[in-house]
Amino acid sequence: MKWTQLPLGPLQTNAYVLQNDANEAIIVDPGGDGTAFIEWIKSQSLKPLAILLTHAHFDHIGAVDDVRDEFACPVYIHHQEKDWLSDANKNGSARFMGEQAISIRPADYIIDKEQTLTIGPFSFSVFETPGHSPGSVSYYVEDEVIVFSGDALFAQSIGRTDLPGGNHKQLLDSIHQKLLELPEETIVACGHGPTTTVASEMDGNPFLTGF
């Protein structure tokens, strides 16, 4: 398998595309630029099987309906944010985007607990990692040693917690108890900016080490 990082939308949110040798694909957080993103998917001859959302903030969901409609693939979201997709106040787009506020259709599948999620040949361990938002989840692919962390953990930083539903202590607990418990070589595919590793963040993230 291989994966690709594609910054999309107004905040250049990282979408990720995980694909196998049969060109089947899973899409994580298609945040915007729907037309261009769809053209890229077609140029790679990919067959999307699902859209996984780490959380429902506007900059992570902007191209969801475009991609879902084009490829007839279902959308997954945590139950605590299932009603955020259609609510511009909850997903933040009313505040940050004004007249371009985002409202999309409900998700097709609701994640209600930590679990192993199997979609076709792909398998993910779903970790609840709230703090940045109450329904934030991370998707860990053990065979590829990569975790798609959304806005929980960044390279040398952590997610903001000043938005509705954010909780700083909860976020730190999520990072320490879930993400930093993964093998140190695990790639952390962040929602913004470059990827990092669990080892790098354990050793040098000033928000986690205290210096």
TrEMBL record:
SUPFAM superfamilies noted in UniProt: Metallo-hydrolase/oxidoreductase (SSF56281)
Regions crossing the membrane: none
Lineage: superkingdom: Bacteria
InterPro entries per UniProt: MBL_Glyoxalase_II, Metallo-B-lactamas, RibonucZ/Hydroxyglut_hydro
Metal-binding in keyword set: yes
Domain Metallo-beta-lactamase: start-end pairs: 12-192
Keyword Metal-binding tagged: yes
Cofactor: Zn(2+)
Pfam families per UniProt: Lactamase_B
Entry protein name: MBL fold metallo-hydrolase
Species name: Halalkalibacter kiskunsagensis
Phylogenetic classification of the source organism: Bacteria, Bacillati, Bacillota, Bacilli, Bacillales
